[in-house]
Structure prediction request, 120 residues.
Amino acid sequence: MDDTTTCPICSNPLRNIKTFKKVITPGPYLAYYERICTKGMNHSLQLTALVATGKIHLIKMSLDVRYTKYLEVNFVQNSCSIILSKANELKYIDIPKMIDLDFPLLDKVREKVDMYITFS
Prediction:
């Protein structure tokens, strides 16, 4: 997946909230971005991308408005994690394969995640 400044869910421009670069030793620079929609949709994305190519290595997105359910997709390891936050505790559900990100149909992504949560 290529880095983007447009929300893959609603196509509105994204605004950077946090940005920093880090080095993988030995290796290339990675950039971390935390971005939200500018048009009031409040879609929140956290991206880690390879600076030289602009390819996203990791994307983490909130799947609910209360920021208690996240999906983290690792494109390098072809895996996913569902992160649930309840009572200040985090629960991780690791998925050893990729979940298809049906952008812009976020409801389909939510349904897939909810199925994994139900059966875990």
Q: What stands out?
A: Residues 14-118 form one domain. The chain has a mean pLDDT of 84. The longest strand covers residues 14-23. The CA atoms of residues 8 and 19 lie 19 Å apart.
